[in-house]
Amino acid sequence: MHKRDTFELPRKTSYVYPIDSKLPLATDIRRYLKKEFAFCTQYEKGIIKDDDPEFLHQYRVTLRRIRAILTLHHSLFNPTQVELLNLAIKNLMQLTNLQRDLDVYLMQMEHYFSLIEHKHHLGLARFFDDLQHQRLKTYKKNKHWLKSDEYKAAHGEIAFQLKHLLAVDNQTTSSNITSINRLLTQLSKKVLKLTATINTETEDSQLHALRIKCKKLRYGLELYTSVSDQLTLSITAKTMKSMQSKLGVFNDSAVQIDFLNHYLEQYKKAGRRAKALNLLLHKMREQHANNKQQLIIEIIQFSQTTAKT
């Protein structure tokens, strides 16, 4: 394909809270959410053309960031609107879940082949052929949906709700910086409380919950980079990004293991494909368990270090 026939990934300038803002905090956040959601539309053509899976990935990242920032600032807005918006954006993302999961699997194909002996590669190749077929089928479904009136209506409704997101009436009782510190401190305490409970017996679901909270705190800290010297938190956006990234890799591993288990349930237990997949599953579980213990050690160290500051 000629380069001119491909779409370039939209270049996004990171939005940070305007340090000289005289507007109510709710007004600035509403403006941010509207801008982020409008930017999402720039990824749609790339998702439809399907040149690069990064278009879908960044589309989903942007929607997750919107939900995270909206949730962080939920106390500033009408609670019913916040709940409905979060649900609507979640529903918008969910239809692309499978395509993204398959993209992640296929991008790691070489790694998976390296985990098992060469004599089992033919069976594994059949598995990845099937994933390619599933991915194409899922992509076509999502392509049709993104072009549909149903999608346009859902997208338009979210844009309308963001534009008319109502602030609650208690916005003038404190300065913006005071409100920002209060919101970030509340979330920071939840992160620290959760990290303090992590130990070698921790379930995967607890690490998943921690990942979500770290992500929200990271997005909040990144949004307020311009006023970082006025924040009372000792945790930095860089620290949260690192922890979220490690927890994200771990969560991807858990999702891939669940996917493989589900796949095996649908196919015969004998044959080259089943043999290869069972061997792969054994290796993946082994790596997942080892990575989990290393991750837990790092989280415990973070918790102990932060507790001293």
Automatic annotation (TrEMBL):
In terms of Pfam families, this protein maps to: CHAD
Per UniProt, residues of the CHAD domain are 22-301
Q: Tell me the SMART domains matching this sequence.
A: CHAD (SM00880)
Question: Which domain of life, per UniProt?
Answer: Bacteria
What's the protein here called?
A: CHAD domain protein
What species is this protein from? Answer: Photobacterium leiognathi lrivu.4.1
